[in-house]
Design brief:
With 540 residues, the chain is α/β, with parallel strands linked by helices. 33% of the residues lie in helices and 18% in strands. It folds into 3 domains: 11-62, Urease, subunit C, domain 1; 69-276 and 385-457, Metal-dependent hydrolases (TIM Barrel), CATH 3.20.20.140; 283-381, no CATH class. The strands form 5 sheets. The protein has a 6-stranded mixed sheet, with no helix packed on it. It binds zinc ion. GO terms for molecular function: hydrolase activity, acting on carbon-nitrogen (but not peptide) bonds.
């Protein structure tokens, strides 16, 4: 590089309100990037001196520059290799997310070692780490869905798979205790697995057994698993689900605070919405789901008495959780048996359009009709899932990271808007409009907090030597624009850099400011993350 000035930076961000998340230097005006790392953070003039002929100069025009967002709770591993589009992580980068942790809620498609090795060959556009899903591990050990009491050999087999996963770089284990097969697991099984994970310095992330009716017992179980295994506990997408359960938010926070005061390392994550997103099986009472969906569909639902009990369970849940209103359950994408596609509509509206009166029983019948064979369809309870009070209360907890709980989406496919806008929504709605928390606090919960919860030592803070993951956004306009009906890119996210590579660039004249190409064989700028090995780093 003959003409680039000696010591010149690869890129600089000038005239920014730099929020570094570094207690030693919280605020600055500019930063420089060299070799994929932050090389300088400071005043405008000192950084301007690092500009050479080849330096990419990003004029921030007073906008905020901060570390790239770290999303500790995603499902972005699912469908990852379906096509090259998925490796671009466009719906993540467009919201400023530069690092994702996948494998949550007990779900994985393959062993962490295999997943990470495949990504080594096809580098993703964001930095990518994964947990080992307990449901996956149970399946990999050949344990039938519905089996509650495992043999000693079965437990040992699972511990062996977790051992391997941790050695291969998983950040910990995840559970999906409302799902098949997690809902059949005993606490002792989870403690045995979490103990292996803890020995490797990993953490225990849990989609708990209940987010509503049995929420308090579920929180206590997660805390007990942390206490008995020694693993740090990550409560996944914390919420208080169901109108009949909203009073529990205080008690949930009280239980977490008490455990923390007792020395148990409990933290968590949250997506900032009042509605959840999952497929219709969430409405099926657990005792009918445990044996697996094939049994549910081929046996239980064919027996009239059993079918009646299942329907009664669905009607009861909709009555207590959603005030009995089928209008509050939104379908974001479903093609019915008659070939008709429904998007961004409610269960009640589907029934009405079919000429059926939307009674609770008919709503339940429709949910049974929607039961997916795979993870294709989804419904969402709207306003009456979690209430805004709970969203704000949880958002105010300094140890709860912001997350998407989202999926890696082909661009603008219909889905829960959290996959397109969870992080900008916090900045637009809960920081700017509702003033629930200050900007700096919100950003900590998107950057340095999740980075430290994952044990990442070189991300989440803008400081010389750290990896150059950077977001530049406009405080005045940042916000979510996706809805159920119409997915959209968020507003106000102007520049996103991953390991120093510009992936979102507001300077491009085209409407689409996304800069990475599709289908190229070169791979993205993200790094494949493996859990930092404590003993290895201690030996250095
Ligand atoms: Zn979950």
């Amino acid at each position: 590089m003959p003409d680039s000035g000696r010591g010149a930076a690869d890129a600089v961000v000038l005239d920014a309100s730099v929020l570094t998340m570094d207690p030693a230097l919280p605020y600055a005006e500019a930063l420089a990037i060299t070799g994929g790392r932050i090389s300088h953070v400071g005043g405008r003039n000192e950084v301007a001196e690092l500009i050479g002929p080849a330096t990419d100069v990003i004029e921030a025009g007073g906008r905020v520059a901060c570390p790239g967002f770290v999303d500790i709770h995603t499902h972005t591993d699912l469908d990852l290799f379906r096509d090259p589009e998925h490796l671009l992580f466009k719906n993540y980068l467009m919201q400023g997310i530069t690092t994702v942790l996948a494998g949550n809620c007990g779900m994985s498609e393959m062993a962490p070692g295999e997943l990470l090795a495949r990504l080594d060959l096809h580098p993703p556009a964001v930095n990518f780490g994964t947990l080992a899903g307990h449901g996956y591990v149970r399946g990999a050990c050949g344990i039938p869905a519905g089996l509650e009491d495992l043999s000693g050999e079965q437990i040992e087999a699972m511990k062996g798979v977790f051992e391997k996963a941790m050695a291969d770089g998983a950040f910990g284990m995840s559970t999906g205790l409302e799902y098949i097969p997690g809902l059949s697991s005993r606490t002792a099984e989870l403690i045995a697995c979490a103990t292996v994970v803890a020995e490797h310095g990993g953490f225990y992330a849990s989609h708990m057994r209940s987010e509503g009716d049995h929420l308090l017992a579920a929180v206590e179980e997660a805390i007990r698993i942390g206490r008995d295994s020694g693993a740090r506990v990550q409560l996944s997408h914390l919420k208080t689900d169901g109108a009949c359960n909203w009073w529990k938010t205080d008690a949930v926070i009280g239980a977490i605070e008490a455990a923390r005061a007792d020395g148990i390392d409990v933290a968590g994550d949250q997506y900032p919405y009042r509605f959840f997103g999952w497929n219709p099986s969430i409405f099926i009472p657990g005792e009918h789901l445990a044996a697996g969906k094939p049994t549910l569909k081929s046996t239980y639902l064919r027996d009239p008495g059993h079918r009646r009990r299942i329907k009664a369970g669905i009607v009861d849940r909709i009555a207590r959780y959603h005030g009995g209103d089928g209008d509050l359950v939104v379908v974001f994408d479903w093609t019915d048996g008659r070939g008709q596609r429904w998007q961004g509509t409610s269960l009640s509206r589907i029934l009405t359009e079919r000429g059926v009166t939307p009674t609770p029983e008919e709503v339940a019948e429709l949910i049974l009709e929607m039961l997916p064979d795979e993870r294709d369809d989804a419904v969402m309870g709207t306003d009456l899932s979690t209430n805004d009070d709970a969203v704000r209360r949880y958002l105010s907890l300094p140890y709860l990271a912001v997350c998407t709980d989202g999926f890696n989406q082909p661009w603008l496919a219909p889905c829960h808007p959290r996959s397109y806008g969870a992080f900008p929504k916090v900045l637009g709605e809960y920081v700017r409009e509702k003033r629930t928390l200050p900007l700096e606090t919100a950003l900590q919960k998107m950057t340095s907090l999740p980075a430290s919860l994952m044990g990442l030592e070189d991300r989440g803070i803008l400081r010389a030597g750290m990896r150059a993951d950077v977001v530049v956004f406009d405080e005045a306009t940042v916000g979510e624009r996706a809805t159920f009906e119409a997915p959209a890119a968020p507003a106000g996210i102007d520049f996103v850099l991953v390991n120093g590579v510009v992936t979102v660039d507001r300077r491009t004249a085209a409407a689409d400011v996304f800069r990475l190409g599709t289908g190229s064989g070169q791979g993205g700028p993200g790094m494949v993350l493996r859990r930092p090995n404590r003993s290895a780093s201690a030996a250095l």
